[in-house]
UniProtKB/TrEMBL annotation:
The active site is at D205. Its EC number is 2.4.2.1. Coiled coil: none annotated. The record marks R218 as: Important for catalytic activity. This is Purine nucleoside phosphorylase DeoD-type. It catalyses: uridine + phosphate = alpha-D-ribose 1-phosphate + uracil; a purine 2'-deoxy-D-ribonucleoside + phosphate = a purine nucleobase + 2-deoxy-alpha-D-ribose 1-phosphate; a purine D-ribonucleoside + phosphate = a purine nucleobase + alpha-D-ribose 1-phosphate. It comes from Maritalea mediterranea. Residues 16-230 form the Nucleoside phosphorylase domain. GO terms for molecular function: purine-nucleoside phosphorylase activity. Keywords: Glycosyltransferase, Transferase.
Length: 236
């Protein structure tokens, strides 16, 4: 038990899906898991454990931004023994080849966050996904004939970036596909504690074209990301 999580020590599975949004955690648990039980509701940052295709799986909301995610993931690793982390997020498009509803596998996560500066000093550490998870996720997406992209993303500390897409110009110039707000901290923590992590995100709004997911399509779009991630969890 911690100030952020009142679940007992054995409450979580080794594999944990991590949406930012607590209601996405609830939706995944109630829609796709068998025997889902609420294990954490501190601050309404909901966490559930159940089974998927016979495999024990958890889903824990992280809130928005790297400091918030880092609290939940640090505790999941160090107090709850979690081993594999699959972020299931939304992201903004930064590249015209990524269309609304497309899934992005975050191979590496650049960031403007100061969180790693103290740790790495003069180095610019490159937070990256686990290769095993990445390869399995890409293979599963291919099997489903899903449209996905694998490449660099940016974990931004700022949602409302000055100038919109133009505010990301150096990243646009270096083939970054999308922006979200948590993957860099997740990848860094996973590397530090020898765990596996990947961010799988659905593009909901393109900062270049202004295209947005429409309300009707939102659920079904996130469903592709959720079931791909659960199928990945079932292989671990
Ligand atoms: O949909 P989630 O997982 O919350 O992810 C994205 O959405 C939030 C911003 O709206 C940030 O947390 C960003 O990373
Ligand atoms: O962080 C995010 C997530 C979705 N869309 C954005 O523009 N930014």
């Amino acid at each position: 038990m911690t100030p952020h999580n009142h679940a007992p020590k054995d409450a979580y599975a080794e594999t944990v899906l991590l949406p930012g949004d607590p209601l996405r955690a609830k939706w995944v648990a109630e829609t796709f898991l068998d025997d889902a039980k609420l294990v954490n509701s501190v601050r309404n940052c909901l966490g559930y454990t159940g089974t998927y295709k016979g495999q024990k799986v958890s889903v824990q909301a992280t809130g928005m931004g790297q400091p918030s995610l880092a609290i939940y993931v640090h505790e999941l690793i160090n107090l709850y023994g979690a081993k594999n982390f699959i972020r299931i997020g939304t992201c903004g498009g930064l590249n015209e080849k990524v269309k609304v509803r497309d899934v992005v596998l975050g191979v590496a996560a650049s960031t403007d966050s100061a969180m790693n500066a103290g740790t790495f000093g003069r180095y610019h550490y490159a937070p990256h996904a686990d290769f095993d998870l990445l390869r399995k996720a890409a293979d599963l997406a291919d099997e489903r004939k899903m449209k996905f992209h694998a490449g660099g993303i940016v974990s931004s500390d700022v949602f409302y970036v000055e100038g919109g897409a133009k505010g990301y110009q150096p990243l646009l110039d270096h083939d970054i596909l999308a922006v979200e707000m948590e993957a860099a901290a997740l990848y860094t923590l996973a590397a530090k504690f020898n765990r596996k992590a990947i961010a799988i995100c659905t593009m909901t709004d393109c900062l270049i074209t202004g295209d947005e997911i429409d309300a009707d399509a939102r659920q079904s779009s996130l469903e592709e990301m959720a079931t791909l991630s659960l199928d990945l969890a079932a292989t671990l």
